[in-house]
């Protein structure tokens, strides 16, 4: 039987026990521009590579503020992130109004994963073709979660998603043991070095195509502007030159 017989509805299983529409949504995340997160004992950093559809268009945003203590990075179909972003912002406001405090990051990630999961069980709508990195600080300290279209939520010390993310994962796996004691600046430099492995050969990291954000217990969610991103890119170049000299 032809595969197309089983990919017209998310509730139709193939003979091999696969849900093709869920797999298509996962592939959309893999095809999206790279986004990564890493955390220390005090801080979480999100970094994303912004795409430009043409030289006449602006770059597509990758990182969004949810509340003062939490934000998210995305990879996949950007339009699919909007209802989830709206949902998380509403949940944060409702929790603050009712309980007078910030919503826990782990609970938020689980709630969003449940919304992903419901789309895999009903024919009413297709799965969300978006992967999220939810980063923030709560009573347990810095937290970093990944949610996927298949309905899973996982907590990480460092993670990368999107196109060519394996290169960033390799870098993060090599250095993650040093992250807990790093300063905010050093953590951002590592994020940019990891992100540099996700760009195509003829593309360089610039202040225009990079998104950066930092959040900690003493620093509300802070989306860095282009001028501050340029400073960190210069720091990466200096660090790279020093590494070459040592070699």
General description of the model:
About 40% of the residues lie in helices and about 25% in strands. It has 6 helices and 10 strands; from the N terminus they run αββββααββββααββα. The protein has a 5-stranded antiparallel β-sheet with strand order 8-1-2-9-10. A hairpin with a 3-residue loop joins strand 1 (about 35-40) and strand 2. It is of the alpha+beta class.
Key attributes of the depicted protein:
single chain; 247 residues; alpha+beta; five-stranded antiparallel sheet; 10 strands; 24% strand; globular
Describe the structure concisely:
The chain is α+β, with helices and mostly antiparallel strands. The chain has six helices and ten strands.
Number of helical runs? 6
Radius of gyration: 19 Å
Structural class: alpha+beta
Question: What's the CATH class, please?
Answer: Alpha Beta
Lateral strand order in the biggest sheet: 8-1-2-9-10
Which helices and strands occur, and which strands form pairs?
Elements: H1 20-31, E1 35-39, E2 43-49, E3 63-67, E4 70-76, H2 78-99, H3 105-119, E5 130-138, E6 141-147, E7 153-155, E8 158-161, H4 165-175, H5 184-196, E9 210-216, E10 219-223, H6 226-246
Antiparallel strand pairs: 1-2, 1-8, 2-9, 3-4, 4-5, 5-6, 6-7, 9-10
Helix pairs in contact: 4-5, 5-6
């Amino acid at each position: 039987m032809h595969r197309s017989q089983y990919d017209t509805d998310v509730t139709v299983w193939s003979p091999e026990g696969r849900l093709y529409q869920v797999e298509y949504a996962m592939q959309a995340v893999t095809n999206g521009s790279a986004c990564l997160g890493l955390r220390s004992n005090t801080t979480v950093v999100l970094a994303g590579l912004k795409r430009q559809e043409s030289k006449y268009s602006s770059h597509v945003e990758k990182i969004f503020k949810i509340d003062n203590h939490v934000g998210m990075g995305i990879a996949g179909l950007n339009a699919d992130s909007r209802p989830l972003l709206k949902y998380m912002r509403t949940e944060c406001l409702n929790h603050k109004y009712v309980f007078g405090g910030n919503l826990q990051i782990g609970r938020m990630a689980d709630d969003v994963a449940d919304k992903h999961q419901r789309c895999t069980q009903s024919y009413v709508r297709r799965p969300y073709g978006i992967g999220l990195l939810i980063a923030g600080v709560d009573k347990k300290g810095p937290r970093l979660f990944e949610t996927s279209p298949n309905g899973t939520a996982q907590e990480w010390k460092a993670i990368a998603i999107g196109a060519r993310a394996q290169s960033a994962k390799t870098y993060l796996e090599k250095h993650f043991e040093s992250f807990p004691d790093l300063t905010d600046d050093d953590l951002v430099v590592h994020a940019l070095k990891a992100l540099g492995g996700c760009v195509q050969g003829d593309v360089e990291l610039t202040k225009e195509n990079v998104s950066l954000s930092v959040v900690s217990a003493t620093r509300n969610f802070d989306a860095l502007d282009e001028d501050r991103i340029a400073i960190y890119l210069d720091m990466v170049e200096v660090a790279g030159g020093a590494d070459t000299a040592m070699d």
